[in-house]
Amino acid sequence: MGDFEPYAAGVPPARSVAVRWLGHASVLIELAGVRVLTDPALTPRLAHLRRHHAIDATAIEPPDVILISHVHLDHLHVPSLRLFGSEVATIVPAGAAALLRRKGFRNVRETRAGSSTELGPLTIDTVPAVHPSSRGPHSRIAADAVGYIVRGGDAVVYFPGDTDLFDEMGTWDAIDLALLPIGGWWRTVGEGHLDPSRAARAVELIDPRHVLPVHWGTYSPIGLGRPAWLNTPAERFRAELDAAGTGDRLRLVTPGGTLVLPPVEWETHREPAEDTP
Ligand SMILES: [Zn+2]
Fold this sequence. Notes:
This protein is an alpha/beta fold.
C-alpha cells in the first residue's frame, strides 16, 4: 500500500457514465460518482509535438484518481500531472513510481497486470498491454505497459492505453465502453499500437457495447501546420467498423467532446440472463 491514499468512499453511486475526451489518451471518466483521469497529456506543446485542440486544464474538475498506462512521454507527462497538484492519487505501472516520487508526487501507487485496486465504489483491474516498456531510447526508466478495466455503479469501462492486439482481449465479459486508441501523432502507427484496422478487430474481440476512439487528431509534429491526415484515423475507423458490421457501436467525439451514456441503457443491459425460463 505504501503512502497511497485511496479515494474516500461516501459518494452515492450513480448508474451512469460520463466521459470527456480531453484529446490524445486523456479521458475524464465519471463513474459511480468518482472522477478518473487517464494518461493526462494536456499541454499545448509536448516534446516535438503541438496540440490542435487547446484544453483549459483549470476548468477540469479535479480527478479523484489518475491512471497511467505506460511511461512514454505522451502518456506519463509530468507537466500535465502537475496541473492537478502533488497530492493527486496516481496509479502507475510497476517501475514508474520512483520517477514521479522524485518529481515530488506523494500519492503514487504501482500496479501490474493481474492486480486489482479498490477505490471507494470502483474496482480497477489492471490488464496487460502489448507495447514497449522503455520510456525512450536514452532512458533507463522502464515499466511494463498496462491497461485498466474500471468497474463501478453499473458499468464497466476499458482503457487500454497504447497496445497491440492480444488474445486476452477476447476473454473479458461485458465491457460497456471501450476507449480504444486508433492512431497517434503521425500519419501511421507501428507495431505495438492499434491502427483503425486493428482497432476494429479489437472491437470484435472485446465486443463492447460502445466504442469511443481516442489517441488521434490531437498532436502532430511542430512544423507540419495542421496535417491533412489529422482526422484520417477516425474516418478509417468508421469505415472499418461499418465493414465489420459493428458501426452501431461507434461513439465518435472530437477532442474536448463529452459522451454521456444514460442510466436507462445500463439497466436494460444488466438484465440477468440466468433467470429467463
Ligand atoms: Zn506509447
